[in-house]
Write a structure and sequence with these properties.
about 550 residues, Rossmann fold, Heat Shock Protein 90, 7-stranded mixed sheet, about 20% strand, elongated, disordered N terminus
C-alpha cells in the first residue's frame, strides 16, 4: 500500500449505497487506506447524515429505492456549503445518457460496477488531494482579501495619525503658551498638568494604532517591564469584565530590557485580550515577571559570565485551554479559533513578530480545560545609573534668527508661530511646499532655518525638502510631522534633513533642536542633497 499522509488519514468519506455488501467492501477498502468512513443506506438517510457531519467526498450509488443517486446529488448541491463537495457516482449504468444525467445532477466523477476497489481507493485519494489544493487556494484567497483590507486600514490609520497628532500638538502648544503667559499659574490647579498628561496618553494611543497597522518602526530603549505591566493593568481593570480577576506577581529586583515600550504594551494587551476571550464565564488573569539565568528548557542560549540572563514575562489564564494542533498553529498569520468576523487572526502573529524583533522568544503552554500560559523571554541589559533616573527638564532656549515655518494646518501654524516668537525668533509662515519654495528663493539669504511638515497637499514635504536642497545645498531643515512614511522615502528624508521631530513634541525639545542645528558648524553639512555620508543629526534625540 502507498504510504498515507496525515491529511489523507483525516479525510472523511460518506458511502451511500442500498447494497450492504457494496457498503462493507467500500468501507473496508477506504478504512484500510487510512480514510474515515460513514455509511448511509439511501439518499434520504444520506441527507440526514449531512445534517451532522460534513464529509470531504461522497460516494453515491445511482439505483436506490425512495431517492435515487441523481436526485440525491441534486439535493446535496442545493445545500449551503455543499455546492463544491466532490461526488463520485458508483453505477452499473455505463451508457452515455446515464453518464450525462450524472454530470447534470452534480457528479464530479463516476466509476462503473463491478468496482475495482484498488482503483476506487486511488480515485478517492486523487480527489482528496484535489480538494486539499482547492481548499488551500480558497484559504489563500481569503487571506489575501483580509491582507488587502488591513492594508487599506493601515493607510487610513497613517493619515489619521498625522491629523490627530497635529491636534494634540496644538493642544500641547496652547497649554505651554498659557503657562508662559502666566508663569505664576499653578499647573495642577490650573489643569495644565492634566492637559499635558492627556496629550502624552493620546500620543501613545496613536503609536499603538500605528503598531497595529505596522506603520511604525521600533524605538528600543532600556525599560523596566514592571512599569509597562502596571500601565496596562490599569487599562485592563477598566476594560475587561469584572468577573475576571487580574493578579500581578512582579519581581521588584527585575532586570532591565532594551525594548519599545509601546510595543511591549501592545504585546500585553493582545495576550490579555486572548486570555479574556478564553474565560467567557470569568476566571483569573495572572501577569508575572521574573529574572531567568538558565535555558528553562525552551531553547534559550546559555548564559555566559558576561551576560545578565533573561527577563521572563508570563501572561496566563485558567480558561478553556488549547489542543495540541491549535497550539502548533497559534502564531501563524490569519489563524484564529474565533468565529468569522470576530478576529483577524493576526494578534498573536503580531506578538510573535514583535518578540522576534526584540531578539526574544515566546513559548505557549496550554492544557484543554486548565488554561494557557504565554512565556516571553527578553535579553536583560545593563543600564547606566544616570539613565535609570527620570530625565531632567530641558530649559527653554531661543534666539533672534529668522525661521520659515511650513504647515498646511492653520491652527498648527498659528500656535507654532506664537511659540517661536515667544522664544525670540522672527517667523515667516507658508501653508504648502510651493509657497515655501517661493519664499525661500526670494529670501534665502535672510532665512536661517526651515521647519517643514511632511504631509501637505500639492508637492508635499518630502518633495519640497529635495527642491530646497537643489536651491541651496546648505539649507538647514528640521522636519516636524505627525506621521512619517516608510522605507526608502523615510531614509531619504532622514539623510537630507538636519533633524526629524515627531508631533506632538514639547516646545523645549523643538527649541533645543532648533538651537542645536543653528549652532552647528556649517562646514559639517554635505555639499549635495544626494550625499549618503551626511554627518547631520537625523533624529531629534541627536539634536536635543
Amino acid at each position: 500500500m502507498t504510504e498515507k499522509t496525515d491529511q489523507e488519514k483525516k479525510a472523511h468519506i460518506l458511502v451511500v449505497d442500498d447494497d450492504e455488501i457494496i457498503r462493507i467492501a467500500a468501507s473496508e477498502s477506504l478504512t484500510e487506506a487510512g480514510f474515515q468512513v460513514t455509511e448511509a443506506e439511501n439518499g434520504i438517510q444520506a441527507l440526514q447524515v449531512l445534517e451532522d457531519i460534513r464529509p470531504d467526498i461522497i460516494l453515491l450509488d445511482v439505483m436506490m429505492p425512495e431517492m435515487d443517486g441523481f436526485a440525491t446529488a441534486r439535493a446535496v448541491r442545493q445545500r449551503a456549503g455543499f455546492e463544491m463537495i466532490p461526488i463520485l457516482i458508483m453505477t452499473a449504468l455505463d451508457d452515455l445518457e446515464s453518464i450525462n444525467r450524472a454530470y447534470e445532477a452534480g457528479a464530479t466523477d463516476f466509476i462503473t460496477k463491478p468496482i475495482n476497489w484498488v482503483i476506487l481507493v486511488q480515485r478517492v485519494r486523487y480527489m482528496t488531494r484535489s480538494v486539499q489544493i482547492m481548499n488551500a487556494q480558497k484559504r489563500l484567497q481569503a487571506e489575501l482579501q483580509q491582507a488587502q483590507k488591513l492594508e487599506a486600514v493601515a493607510t487610513l490609520v497613517g493619515g489619521l495619525a498625522h491629523d490627530f497628532n497635529n491636534l494634540l500638538h496644538v493642544i500641547l502648544s496652547s497649554a505651554e503658551l498659557i503657562q508662559l503667559n502666566h508663569p505664576n499659574l499653578d499647573r495642577p490647579s490650573g489643569g495644565l498638568g492634566d492637559i499635558t498628561e492627556a496629550v502624552d496618553r493620546g500620543s501613545k494611543l496613536v503609536r499603538q494604532l500605528l503598531t497595529y497597522s505596522r506603520k511604525i518602526k521600533s524605538e528600543k530603549r532600556p525599560i523596566h517591564l514592571n512599569d509597562r505591566v502596571q500601565q496596562v493593568t490599569q487599562l485592563l481593570q477598566r476594560t475587561i469584565p469584572k468577573m475576571i480577576e487580574i493578579e500581578c506577581r512582579l519581581n521588584e529586583d527585575l532586570n532591565w530590557v532594551s525594548a519599545d515600550s509601546i510595543q511591549m504594551e501592545q504585546v500585553l494587551m493582545n495576550l490579555a485580550i486572548n486570555a479574556k476571550d478564553a474565560m467567557p464565564n470569568g476566571g483569573r488573569l495572572v501577569i508575572e515577571t521574573a529574572n531567568v539565568e538558565g535555558s528553562e528548557n525552551v531553547g534559550l542560549p546559555p548564559s555566559t559570565p558576561d551576560s545578565l540572563g533573561w527577563v521572563r514575562l508570563t501572561v496566563s489564564d485558567n480558561g478553556h485551554g488549547m489542543e495540541k494542533e491549535t497550539r502548533r498553529q497559534v502564531f501563524e498569520p490569519f489563524f484564529s479559533t474565533k468565529a468569522p468576523g470576530k478576529g483577524t487572526g493576526l494578534g498573536l502573529s503580531m506578538v510573535h513578530g514583535i518578540i522576534q524583533n526584540h531578539d526574544g522568544k515566546i513559548v505557549c503552554r496550554s492544557t484543554p480545560g486548565q488554561g494557557t500560559a504565554f512565556h516571553i523571554y527578553l535579553p536583560a541589559v545593563e543600564i547606566a545609573q544616570e539613565n535609570a533616573r527620570p530625565a531632567e527638564k530641558q530649559n527653554r532656549v531661543g534666539g533672534n534668527e529668522i525661521l520659515l515655518l511650513v504647515d498646511d494646518d492653520e491652527t498648527t501654524l498659528n500656535t507654532g508661530k506664537k511659540q517661536l516668537e515667544k522664544a525670540g525668533y522672527t517667523v515667516i509662515t507658508a501653508t504648502d511646499g510651493e509657497k515655501a519654495l517661493k519664499i525661500y528663493n526670494a529670501q534665502k539669504d535672510a532665512i536661517d532655518l526651515i521647519l517643514l511638515d511632511l504631509m501637505m497637499p500639492g508637492m508635499g514635504g518630502a518633495n519640497c525638502l529635495q527642491a530646497l536642497l537643489r536651491l541651496d545645498p546648505e539649507v538647514k531643515v528640521i522636519i516636524t510631522s505627525g506621521h512619517y512614511p516608510e522605507g526608502q522615502r523615510l531614509q531619504i528624508i532622514e539623510e537630507c534633513a538636519r533633524a526629524c521631530l515627531h508631533k506632538p513634541d514639547p516646545s523645549s525639545r523643538l527649541l533645543a533642536a532648533i538651537r542645536n542645528v543653528l549652532d552647528a558648524n556649517a562646514s559639517a553639512a554635505p555639499s549635495s542633497a544626494t550625499s549618503t555620508e551626511s554627518p547631520r543629526p537625523n533624529r531629534a534625540s541627536d539634536a536635543a
